[in-house]
Specification:
Blueprint (H helix, E strand, L loop, with lengths): L1 H11 L3 H41 L2 E5 L15 E2 L1 H9 L4 E16 L2 E10 L7 H5 L1 E4 L9 E5 H7 L6 E7 L5 E12 L4 H6 E5 H7 L5 E2 L1 E6 L5 H7 L5 E5 H4 L1 H39 L1 H9 L4 H37 L1 E2 L13 E2 L5 H18 L1 H8 L3 H9 L1
Helix pairs in contact: 1-12, 2-10, 2-12, 2-13, 10-13, 10-14, 11-15, 12-13, 12-14
Amino acid sequence: MFQAFKLAYRNVGRNKTRSLLSALAVGVGMALLLLMASVLEGEMQGALQNTIRLQSGHLQVRPASYEENKISLKWEDLIENPDQVAAQVKSLPQVTVATPRLVASSILTVGDESKGVQILGIDPESAANQPFREGMLSGEFIKADDREGILIGNVLADKLGLKVNDKVNLLVTTSNGDVNEQLFTVRGIFTTRTPGYDENTIFMPLAKAQAITATENHASTLFVTLQDLNQADAVAQALKGSNYKILTWRDQNVFITQFEDYANAFFIILYLIVLGITATVVTNTLVMAVFERTREIGILSAIGMKGRSIMAQFLAEAALLATGGVIGGLLIGGAAVAYFTVYGIYIGDYGLTGVLFEDHIYAHLTLQNTVTLAVLTYIITLIASLYPARLAARLEPVEALHGLGD
């Protein structure tokens, strides 16, 4: 075996430029695979993390009749005495935060411009609001006793030309179907780096949101975070005895899972295209080597070398090319992934509802993906060498010597 690889190394070195280009093709192909896999992983992981920290939490407690898409403010569709229910939920040892939130639809008007937005009534002191505090760009965070202040996202502020301390008008449908209207002051502008969320969501203190919608002492949902997201099913089971609907982060993010499945299927096609191109380069390289060494192969056959030994010789050469290519791919791909892990890829606003994509995708490469793609690239390279290896093994000694002699 050592002798075979020693001979293969010598043969690969006969045409250094061609061998280097072939190994480089394998390396670039693998680097592309690593980059694509890491971008997909980062995109899905980022979307899920954003949705959990901004929207779904690890758990949500809702009234049994509450439907998120309808954003109902009827009392029977809301949680009564939400602070009391939140205290009960927070008594569980796995729970770190349980805070009530009220969701309402509204129309924001500034001068002649108007925009449909979603009001989120929050407890300003809750730790669940840390992502919004960290994302404050200007102004100050709202306070619990503020009756005229709101927070708006930077995307909405840019589109409507709003600044801190500007006045906006909000029209809100109340729990009894009436329309309430009030002038509010922009206390601050925030960003979550998710354009869709920052354009359509405004915050106001929970007490004020309840007052303007006539839903005093009621909330749409309890936003719950846990010590570990893997505890969600156990906590949901513990809360099942209540008269509320308990939704885990998995229940609330089914669309992300489905989107990831479709994305994976699409990326598999891209993987096959890249590997197909790589395999073609390797096949062409070895086929050219066969034709260049036809006489040599004929001589080896004439002195008694078996066809399987000749075939093994070319497979050994392919293994050397694959090894060099995989190592090069790990270096090139690793450098590219490291760059995009830090700086990301700017995508702007995806315009996709139901998924909170950031304006940048940051690469995230897992050990499993690295090993899987390295092994896959190596195997595909060896498979690509089977045809030229069999071609060499099937050459008849007399025909090989005669053909090259002409």
